[in-house]
Known about the structure:
The protein is of the alpha/beta class. The chain has two domains: 153 residues, 3-Layer(aba) Sandwich (Rossmann fold); 116 residues, no CATH class. It is built from nine helices and nine strands. Strands 2-3-1-4-5 form a five-stranded parallel β-sheet, sandwiched between helices. α1 packs across α6. The N and C termini lie far apart (50 Å). The C terminus is likely disordered. Pfam families: PapZ_C, RapZ-like_N.
Amino acid sequence: MKAVIISGLSGAGKSQAVKHMEDFGFYCVDNLPPILIPKFMELCNQTQGKIEKIALVIDIRGGLFFNDLSKSLKDLQDLGHQFEVLFLDASDEVLVKRFKETRRSHPLSPEASISEGIEKEREMLKDLKKMANNIIDTTRLIPSQLKEELKSIYIEGNDSNNLMISIVSFGFKHGIPIDSDLVFDVRFLPNPYYDEELRDFTGDDEVIRDYVMNSPVSVTFVNKLFDLMDFLIPHYIKEGKNQLVLAIGCTGGRHRSVTISHLMHQQLKAKGYRVILNHRDAFIGKERKKQ
């Protein structure tokens, strides 16, 4: 039987995750008191294969019962039950924003600031996060991307190495993404903006990609960038990093940065990494023009 314990920060997407796991055929239970986990696993094992996959959401909503989690997980191991821990995380800024958008208070600080509740929760969950087999940072994920991540890990069996790579194209005139780990400035590459026939297209369009990459400088840069990533990423994985944000910027964030971001996304996907792509500024103030 395949068992997944889902936990993580409030607002990080556990409710979405358990819905997706149901879609994948998992028998799901939300907010099960941890002390009941061993008994529940035993009952599932007695179904003679009728229940083969289960997902249990365990988090701080359990209140005092949450303190039993460590003992319950140890009991599972002692009884020989196999399970994995999935931990969902997100940046403090995004968590605060999500709480405000839903007009909810944080369960650990109903009368205080949301930030205080997040800080308390991180402290409570730090040991569980260390136990996690998989960590998904949902800071930049939309629900469909979270579903793809879960499918990749639990249905397709892709070993994620716990590193989520986010590639963000942006325009320097709109500011550098504040959560960037690595920033690459591609403003030295050929700029389609100065061709009026190309100006309204973006790097999403083949005509722009051809223009940008029809230059020895662009080809050399991309190859060197690929080589750098081939060197860095295994070291980040070895160090235990679980979120890497690559920000690639040009002047407006519409042409060159989008082109290079697409190429980087394709390269890393082909190597089996977990990677998502976001064009932050490509369509600011404009409708997309189709070829």
